[in-house]
From TrEMBL:
This is Uncharacterized protein.
């Protein structure tokens, strides 16, 4: 190898390693050093963790309460979608950038380059249509050494706090796809029965475990189906599915619609009627359901996907009571410099809001 090529290669490798390390270090700010100090009493750490958990839930509780009170004071709303950010990226098997997504989605929702009316004429700057209860401080919780068993329960708890404030309904901003498990679980537990789940994604995310992680973003729908939180699970946009994905799909009775037959399935998928006889409909949108041509800012590029209009046709024509939703896996670290995919994720949120609020 020529010496200058060697230097270039070394530099490239170094920058790759550095960006990988930066991604791996999300949520590992300081507490990990505490584990090396054996003189720290265990109860000191536990009591501190409990205080931070309580403060985190108090923040969500009080924000939801205030927004609920405001909506009720205005009057006339039967359902108001409430944004709840869950900036969690460490259960991704690849890149962790989705931990940075919620504030960028919010910024794009209110971006001056477009107005605040959705395609079907719903006006978003009415607080009875779209409320915001802020972000669950996931990285702060992780920095206190909170493990995933507890963190997932905290995510569920925060969703329930939103649902307690009638007429607020949770519209969750991810985060990687692992958050859909604690969110759907909370929705089902709070409503007292299963929902029908419409899941748009390039991947079925139904591995029993992925790389040993039962909370992996590739396993969330296995947990949802095991828990009995969904009566029907329709997966749309699939184009990266292996034999385990198909077997798990069969095992749980999942209706899997693959891209290779989309032209045949289109009519059915653009005229869905869901949620009757159960507690309603939950929609989970992984931004990578879209072809990478429409959404560059995702961790897993999988060509051959849905167009943005395909997704809107499915959403606009769906009949059913939308009780909660999530938009996950937008990775700002992979977005174009002009933030194109942030606008894509924001428009999905805006159109879901229009579907949910009334
Ligand atoms: Mn995916």
């Amino acid at each position: 190898m020529m010496p200058e090529v060697k230097v270039m290669f070394k530099k490239l490798l170094l920058s790759l390693i550095m960006s990988f390390q930066a991604a791996m270090n999300i949520g590992r700010r300081g507490i990990h050093s505490l584990h090396t100090v054996n003189k720290v009493p265990k109860n000191l750490l536990e009591e501190g963790q409990n205080r931070v958990v309580e403060a985190s839930l108090t923040l969500v509780r009080e924000q939801a309460k205030l927004k609920g009170e405001l909506v009720r004071a205005f009057g006339g709303a039967k359902a108001t979608s409430a944004l709840l950010g869950v900036p969690l990226g460490h259960n991704s098997s690849f890149l962790q950038g989705p931990a940075f997504a919620p504030p960028l989605i919010r910024e794009a929702i209110w971006c001056g380059s477009t107005n605040s009316t959705t395609e079907e004429g719903v006006v978003l700057d009415d607080p009875r249509v779209l409320a915001d209860v802020g972000d669950l401080p996931v990285q702060e919780l992780r920095d206190c050494g909170i493990d995933d068993d507890r963190l997932m329960n905290i995510v569920s708890e925060s969703v329930k706090l939103v649902m307690e404030q009638d007429p607020l309904r949770p519209l969750v901003l991810g985060g990687d796809h692992s958050i859909s498990y604690p969110v759907v679980r909370a929705v089902s537990e709070k409503l007292g029965g299963p929902v029908d789940v419409l899941h748009l994604d390039a991947h079925p995310d139904i591995y029993d475990r992925f790389e040993g992680n039962k909370y992996s973003h590739a396993s969330s729908f296995a947990r949802i189906m095991e828990g009995g939180y969904a009566r029907r699970l329709l997966q749309v946009g699939l184009r990266s599915i292996n034999s385990e994905g198909r077997e798990q799909g069969k095992r749980f009775g999942v209706e899997q619609y693959e891209m290779r037959t989309f032209s045949k399935d289109r009519h059915f998928l653009e005229n869905l009627k869901l949620g009757e006889g159960v507690k309603g409909v939950y929609i989970s949108i992984d931004v990578d359901c879209l072809d990478p041509a429409f959404a560059h800012g995702v961790s897993h590029f999988e060509p051959g996907g849905l167009s943005f209009r395909d997704v809107l046709n499915i959403l606009h024509n769906l009949q059913g009571e939308l009780v909660a939703a999530d938009v996950v896996e937008f990775n700002p670290q992979r977005d174009t410099a002009d933030g194109m995919t942030a606008m894509v994720a924001a428009k999905l949120v805006r159109e879901l809001t229009a579907k949910m609020s009334k």
